[in-house]
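Researcher: Good morning. I'm working through a list of sequences from a screen, and I'd like to move beyond sequence-only analysis. For each chain I'm collecting a predicted structure so we can compare shapes side by side. This is the next one on the list. No need for commentary yet; just the structure.
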Amino acid sequence: MKSASYILVFFISVSIYAQDSDYVMSSYLNEGFKAPNTHYIGEAWLNRLLQADDDLAYNITKATFKANSTLDWHKHTSVQVLIVVAGEGYYQEKGKEAVKMKTGDIIKCEKNTEHWHSSSKHSDVTYLALYGGKKPTIWTEVLIQENYDNIAQKLEQ
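Model: Good morning. Structure tokens for this chain:
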């Protein structure tokens, strides 16, 4: 989708004006750190590109989930936007059907909406997660492997 490309170019352009361009590109290209297996199954890498503080109201985190990796159910106290920059994954809000997400997709999740997102069974996924404030993610329920497998089978048909 063209809009995802425009948004990504906008964020990179703004960052270049705000910071040294070599730092911006190396930060974005850096895979980040391997997240501890606390609220997910599989392998996830996080790179906190921007963090909210007294002068900045939002966070931008680049997340890469290796194939067959899942996040648990969770919610945020602000709107969250996911911009898929590579690969394929799944996204589901509580009470709704899961959907497949792919490169170029932009997903907006309203504040306090329980949801989960993950890589697909056979593809890594990398996305930029934009969300507000300094409040932590609220983890609500474990997404068990069997449920993920059933959703994956349905979405891959």
